[in-house]
Write a structure and sequence with these properties.
Elements: E1 2-5, E2 18-21, E3 27-38, E4 51-54, E5 59-65, H1 69-74, E6 83-89, E7 99-103, E8 112-116, E9 119-125, H2 127-133, E10 139-140, E11 143-144, E12 162-170, E13 173-176, E14 180-183, E15 195-201, E16 207-214, E17 221-230, E18 233-237, E19 241-245, E20 252-258, E21 264-270, E22 275-282, E23 287-288, E24 292-294, E25 306-313, H3 317-322, E26 326-334
Antiparallel strand pairs: 1-2, 3-26, 4-5, 5-6, 6-7, 8-9, 9-12, 10-11, 12-13, 12-14, 15-16, 16-17, 17-18, 17-19, 20-21, 21-22, 22-23, 22-24, 25-26
Length: 344
Amino acid sequence: MVIPMRIMKTGLLLWVAFACSGENPGVVDTLVDDACCRGNHISTRPHNRKVVYHAPTSSWFVFHGTGGGWHEKLGDAGFEREMIGWRHSRDGLAFSKLRPAVVGNGHSSSADTLLVGNRIYELGFRRTYWRRKAGLPEFINGKLWAHRDNVKSDGPAFHAPYEVFPFDIAGDRLVGRKEGEALPGGSHIGAEGPHYGSLTRDTKGYIWVAGRAHAGVDERYATWVARSKRPDDISEWERHTVLFTSGVAGTHAPQVMALDEGRVACVLFVKPERMTMVFVYDPGSGAWAKPHILEVSAVADFSHGLGFLYWCQWKDPAVRKQKDDIGQLRFGLVKDVAALFAGS
């Protein structure tokens, strides 16, 4: 018997597909958030890992953004309501309330997570926080500064780095520690500091961050990557390397991954060139090799069950007409992954 669990993608509607033979392997589907989740930039970026399983405490930690839905639902509430938050669960059924991990983050797709022992590292881009530190207003002519017609005409630049936030796991709590600045914001204007990033740790213990940033020419993007100066220490970082710069305007989506013997790979999808590339770092030479052109990119870790976040629109047509991009964030968990392939 084949038991399909199908989810389709229509517009921003995200679905995940499963097909299995024999008995149902036990798919748990849980509502995580139905109050403030916008489809764009919540769980639609596959290179951002937002599900962490901590084996010593048998705990799931999920990270997600509140998206842009706050100002649409509550009026111009400001970016302080727009954040990356986390929830905890022992069984994948009941989740704790949303708690802030990165407050003031104006770009939810910039988040990534990394588990190292009893510590979780969270990658974040706090454009509003750094804008305020530069003394620039949050509202311009009555509009949130990032929602006006011309985003880049607000004068002075402000420093907005890509930051790594460490949290120690203490039972069902996360205890925040001192963050580190991995990629510099430099002279980027508005929201164009490093973002759309990825985070990993190599076999020698160094922490790596990859992200996209404007190349400074004709709206073109470049992909940056940087390594911590010391193993398991995010307080200081080596100078970033520019792996690739697009010839024309268009997005980049990098994913940095640890290989064996201290080597690192960066899988990069570039929209303008319509291709996926992989760059490999050799610790012996301290250099990145020329890229290989690929067809696909994927990363998965389901050693403790397959857990994933997905977003779906409101089912109530009356609500959808008013808040078309507001919906629900759900958590799916397959505890017996092997059963998915039984009889195949």
